[in-house]
Amino acid sequence: MIKLRYLLLILSFFCGDSLFAQSVPKWGGAADQKDISFGFSFSYVDSYFKIDKNANWRDPFIDKDGVKVTDPLNTISSPGSQGFAVGFLARFMLTEHLEARVTPSLVFADRSLTYTYVTPSLNTTKSVQSTSVDLPVSLKIKSDRIGDFRAYILGGVKYSQGIGSRANADAALAPIDKHVKNISGFGSYEAGLGCDIYFEFFKLSPEIKLSNSFGNVLLHEDHPYAAPINKLSLHTLMFSLYFE
Questions:
Q1: Domains contained in the chain, CATH given
Q2: Which of 6, 28, 72, 113 could form a disulfide with 203 if both were Cys (CB 3.0 to 4.6 A apart)?
């Protein structure tokens, strides 16, 4: 019994008034009281390609001079690749439970494609370099606020524009040394969920979001790594922290 009392005293010391009484809801920097508010974000990015292969994708690659460059393929796969993003948030309140958001961000997230051949010495993984500016526009549906917490779901669309290119660097390379490239700009649809956590002077919103590209993001070229592929679709998982 004495040990239980000591435990309760320790808990009360760390938890304060929240253990015995409901605390006053935090102000959250008045973010929800404004029609327009701004913030910034940091994101962890995990992405991979869904691969649609050509009917003859296993065939050896023959260059324009009739020289066989590779042996037949066994597999083409896309392991998950990690990156990060930093961004900006602009929030527009529509109703108490609905808002529009624009969250432009700079994304640093290379992707990769792994090729295995009948001859194991030819096996290789090709990095698809990608630094992009993303412009997502979404609608956010919020629950009622419970103390310092509010849950939400969101959905929207995003346009991604690549910056930088290795096209000139690739021009002088032999076919076996070429790289796979994405088209410069493409759209995606997004869906996610998260929660708003209110503090005295700001609001923190942890969020997880999935996005899938529209159409084909592959830049078709005549080399051993692009030729076997008919279509690439980009799938991305993002975990973000928004500060508003």
A1: 26-243 (2.40.160.20)
A2: 28
